[in-house]
Each structure stands twice: as structure tokens, then as C-alpha cells.
Design goal:
The chain has helices at about 5-20, 25-30, 35-40, 45, 55-80, 85-100, 100-105, 120-130, 150-165, 175-195, 200-210, and strands spanning about 135-140, 145-150. The chain is an all-alpha fold and about 210 residues long. The chain has one domain (about 5-210): Up-down Bundle (Rhomboid-like fold), CATH 1.20.1540.10. It has a two-stranded antiparallel ribbon with strand order 1-2. Helix 9 (about 150-165) crosses helix 10.
């Protein structure tokens, strides 16, 4: 039986591989702020998350998404019951949009700016996983040992903020940050109104127990 995570992963891989050899598809799906502001092509907020720059970009995003996606998808089913899968899909799609809003407002008149990849949505899923399981061990290069997720998260955000400020390279670090923050906010709001689970209390309890 295919999980939602596997369906998204396979759809992203298929679309990315097709776009690798078809530049016109990439141009049609990529996030291009001026096409949004001048031609109302709002769909690009979502479609850009299903194409990638190259094999390594795709492999890194989808491997990370596979690891955290399955974890979060199961957790959503436990927390929200029958609504869990629908909320998981909403989390992923909404994070594709929200993570690019700051980028859009910054570059809406920049005809040279383009962005693609699922990194913002993957960051949202990662940080939901971190908030739900703050003591799980995660690796970060070049540290040779795993560190607790509640320490990994702030380091990841700090590095992303630094790189976003530097502005070097072709990676949209801003999308990583806003995707991560949106994932946490989404979890807090949906849990508050749609379940008895309280993520903040759970986070504090897990971290406190780890530090004892």
C-alpha cells in the first residue's frame, strides 16, 4: 500500500526526471515571480516543488523527505485520526506556497530570478518531525556523531539564516527557514483545534526527560 509520502515522492521524481530533458516543462513549472505578478500564474508556487535542478538536488530532497515524511505521516494519523492524511497533504502543499511568499515579494519585479525544488516543504516536514520527536538523533555535516533534534533544529535555522543573509549560491535558504517555521505553526494550530494532543507540552516533557 502506497503512503502519501511515497505518492508525493514518486510524483516529484517522475516530474523532475521528465523536466531534466525538457527545458520547456521546467520553464512552465518553475517559480518565476514576474510570471506570477504579471500573468497571474499562481500555480508556480506549487509546481516548482515538483521539479529539481539536477539528480543530486532531487536525491537529497527526496531522501530526506522519505525519512521524515513517513515519520510525520504516521504521527498525523495517530494525532488526528481519519483527518491525519488530509492534514498531512495540506501541510505539504501549503508549505510550498508559504515558504516562497517572502521570496515572491522580494523578487516580484526581478526578471532574472527563478527558483525550484521541494526544499521549503521538506523543511516543514522535517521541523514537524523535530517538534514531535525532539530527542531523536540527527546527523549534521561535519559533526561525526548524531545530536538531539532539539539542538539540530536551531543549528539548521542559524546556518540557513546566515547563508540567506550572505546571498551566495543558487539555493533559496529563505524558503528553508519559512518552510520550517510554517511547519511548526501548522502543527500547533491544527493540534489546538483538531485534537487533544499538545505539541508544546510534549516537546518540553521530552526534552526535560532527556536532560535529566
Amino acid at each position: 500500500m502506497f503512503t502519501i509520502t511515497m505518492i508525493i515522492l514518486l510524483l516529484t521524481c517522475v516530474t523532475s526526471f521528465i523536466a531534466f530533458s525538457n527545458e520547456s516543462i521546467t520553464n512552465e513549472l518553475i517559480f518565476y515571480p514576474t510570471a506570477v505578478s504579471n500573468h497571474n500564474q499562481w500555480y508556480r508556487f506549487i509546481t516548482c516543488g515538483f521539479i529539481h535542478a539536477d539528480i543530486m538536488h532531487l536525491a537529497f530532497n527526496m531522501y530526506t523527505f522519505y525519512l521524515f515524511g513517513n515519520l510525520v505521516e504516521r504521527a498525523f494519523s495517530n494525532i488526528f485520526g481519519d483527518a491525519g492524511k488530509a492534514l498531512y497533504i495540506i501541510l505539504y502543499i501549503a508549505s510550498l506556497v508559504v515558504c516562497l511568499l517572502p521570496t515572491y515579494f522580494k523578487h516580484k519585479d526581478n526578471y532574472h530570478y527563478r527558483s525550484l525544488g521541494a526544499s521549503g516543504a521538506v523543511s516543514a516536514v522535517i521541523f514537524v518531525g523535530i517538534f514531535l520527536y525532539p530527542t531523536m538523533g540527527l546527523g549534521i555535516f561535519p559533526i561525526p556523531v548524531n545530536i538531539p533534534a532539539f539542538i539540530f533544529g536551531p543549528i539548521y535555522l542559524a546556518i540557513s539564516a546566515y547563508l540567506a543573509k550572505k546571498g551566495h549560491g543558487n539555493i533559496n535558504h529563505s524558503a528553508h527557514i519559512w518552510g520550517a517555521l510554517f511547519g511548526i505553526v501548522f502543527l500547533l494550530i491544527t493540534s489546538q483545534f483538531l485534537s487533544a494532543f499538545r505539541p508544546i507540552e510534549n516537546f518540553i516533557s521530552e526534552v526535560s526527560g532527556y536532560l535529566r
